[in-house]
Structure formats: C-alpha cells, structure tokens
Amino acid sequence: MKRIIIILFFAGIATVGLAQTTKKVEPKWQDFSTTINAPEQEKITMVYVYNVPCDLCTTIEETILADSTVIKALAKDFISVKFDSETKEDVVVKDKTYPYSAFTETNGVNIYAIALLNGKMGFPTFVFLDKEGEKIGSHFPVKETEEFLTILRYYSSGDYKDEKVPFEEWIKKQ
Fold first, then answer.
1. 143: in domain
2. What is the pLDDT of residue 165?
3. Domain range for residue 59?
4. CB-based contacts of 85: which residues, under 8 Å, 6+ apart?
5. Residue-wise pLDDT tens digits, 151-171
6. At what angle are helices 68-77 and 145-157 packed, to 10 degrees?
C-alpha cells in the first residue's frame, strides 16, 4: 500500500511539473500603438481584432494562432499586433484619437475598432495593413488553419496590389 501511495505521489509531482513547463505558443505580438503609428513598416501588418468575452476568439488563439506553420509565416512576412476592440483607453492613430464608447454600464467598444472594421463588428477579424499603414483587407470569419495560411499567402505574395485580382478571385485561381 505504501508503495502505491509513493508511486502516486511522484506521478502527481511529475504531472504538476509538466503542466508548469507547458508554454503557450503564439505569434510574437508587437506593441500595437508603436506599430500602428510608425510612418512606414518593412512588412505588412496583420491586426488581430478581438474582444475578451469572445468564445470564437479563444478557439482561434488556441488553434490557428498556436499553429507552428502559422507562427512561422507570420514571423517571416508580417508584423503581428493584437487589438482588443473593447479597450477603454483612447487609441491614437496618426494624430487622430479614438475614444471608448459605452453602450451600457458594462459593454462598449473603442471607436477605432468600428473604423478598422468599417462598422462590420465581427470577432475575431484579421485586418491587413500595407507598409504605409493603409487597410488592404480584412477577413471574418476564419475558421481553419489552412484557410488562414491561404490568406497569409495572398498578402505575402503581393497579389493584393493587383486591383483586378481581389482575394475571392485569387482564391479561385489557386
């Protein structure tokens, strides 16, 4: 009996030790304010627009954004930033201030999220900005890793610059 208790004790310690060393894998997120306000970037900026009570956001973070292939693609060709649509702090983008707007005592949105998403409030949304910080596309919903990798290939290829080949047409040709 003592032997079983000792074995279970050490198994428990090993399990706790493994759980503590498990590190969440995610893209290398850059500072939102610094990135958005830079005069020009060397890469396209991918803005992950989310909100905290969003179950789909959590799922995307645990699957798509935790995928090693996605992380490598983002690191290679993109600057990745996160933007919480419900941030209560004023957001300053290129000398324009976007405040938080409360709908109720507990709910609201930062006006920059509305501007960034053209009023189409769906979360999470991936917004892509060119090297000058101009919006070149947004994608919602994204539900599969391979779908997101295809989106990343579209922007990293530079094909988004050809106005005659929007994303939907480009995807048909792939």
1. yes
2. 78
3. 24-173
4. 49, 50, 51, 109, 110, 113, 121, 123
5. 999 999 999 998 777 898 888
6. 20
